[in-house]
Prior knowledge:
Layout: E1 15-17, H1 21-24, H2 53-67, H3 86-93, H4 95-99, E2 108-111, H5 112-121, E3 123-126, E4 129-133, E5 139-144, H6 149-152, E6 160-165, E7 172-173, H7 174-190, E8 198-205, E9 208-215, E10 217-220, E11 230-235, E12 238-244, H8 253-265, E13 270-274, E14 280-282, H9 283-293, E15 302-308, E16 317-320, E17 332-337, H10 344-356, E18 360-364, E19 372-379, E20 384-394, E21 413-415, H11 430-439, H12 462-466, E22 471-472, H13 480-484
Parallel strand pairs: 12-13, 13-17, 17-18, 18-21
Antiparallel strand pairs: 1-14, 2-20, 3-10, 4-5, 4-22, 5-6, 6-7, 6-8, 8-9, 11-12, 15-16, 15-20, 19-20
Amino acid sequence: MRFGGKVTAALVALSLASCGPDGGGGGSSAPATAGTGGTGGTGGTTSGNGCSVRERQDWVLAQLREWYLFPETLPTNPNPAAFNSVDAFLDSLTATARGQGRDRFFTYITSIAQENAFNSSGATAGFGFRLINDGSNRVLIAEAFEGAPALAAGIDRGAEIIGIGTSTANVQSVASLINSGGSQAVNDALGPNTAGTTRVLRVRDASGTRDVAVTKADFSLIPVSPRYGGIVINDNGRQVGYLNLRTFIPFADQQLRDAFTRFRSAGITNVIVDFRYNGGGTLNTAELLGDLLGGNRSTSDVMNVAAFRPEKASNNRTRNFQRQPEAIAPMRLAFIGTPSTASASEEVINAFVPYYDRQMALVGTNTFGKPVGQIGLDRAQCDDRLRVVAFAVQNARGQGDYFNGLASTVPVSCRAADDLSRPLGDPQEASIRAALNFLAGQSCAPITADAGAGAGLAPQSANATLFPENRLVQPERPTPAQREVPGLY
């Protein structure tokens, strides 16, 4: 939610985002994802610039006591002095809700400047790829981003990173790194997310095995890929719109409009929305996407309801569908999801359940399970933005308690793998193929309710024995860009 000073009843924007370590599953102290933010009150005693660890801790506690969706779970007498950082203290405040599966590091503190830069233009620094651990100590490229160093060096989806070093002489195998320190050891070996950091990556792909020196650089991540983000697939003479959205940030808005302009010109009536790696973001952008898919919805139709805790109910908001000139009216919809599909992505899927019923499907595996959203509270002098879970999201039927993922909420689901051997947008990629088959009226094997991240912290589930459960690699403390784009390096 974006607002100035205290929250007012007229909500401008809500933030829905998620995905903890490894794309929403497990881990120790990792916070989760976010969107855009605003300002808040102050807490504790201030002196100087008010940015000592204790002053910041006191401020965080005051904000949670005022806004947290689960106030009954906060400690009665917390002791900030027992923690040497704001992050550790904040994690202790949300521990009970985390144990209940309701706030899996969704509440966290981040940098105002870094988050604003990423939201406005996709600005970040890194190699420019998204990493996946396939569950067998292998790290592979889920996708590579246009305009970034990795893709320019010929590293793209499906390539495996088998070693990392600062030179060819000291390359360590990824398997040994994971065995010694898990995904965090891989994160550490890749170095800091600052432009100019160089690593030698031992890469194995269809061309063989080679060592590639890649230097991290500043780049703008494009939310809708110009290669496969918004394309028309010809499936045996049927024209199907395929949208792959990487993240919900305001920078995506015009790109979404452009994609739907193409769909509208092509007369598209069947759509695949690929959210397989989308961890969430701003609710405003999610609602724009809902409008673009909702050309056959009335402005009296409810898209979603945001509900705060009872004493903050004056901030509750019902959002109806709105007319957009680029909107289309699909007859059938297929959403591709994985355990990395979270928050704003799940909200869009859930919003269409009351209107499509069995004419839409969830394809892939179960989603993460985050039916709550954050507001942003700023302490500007410290560059602190507190993302605090403050509201729950429901669809027009009041459905919103999907903490175990959407597999049991969406009436039709089709189990499918995330096929890294084929490019995104390829009609023969396993999940896209399953989605096309559903749109063509074919039957499929359903996703079981426990088949994704579900509670996020649970062990790999039954579906993982059928399809290796790819988990996006996340550091213990992600940057704002990594929170918005899980797996980003």
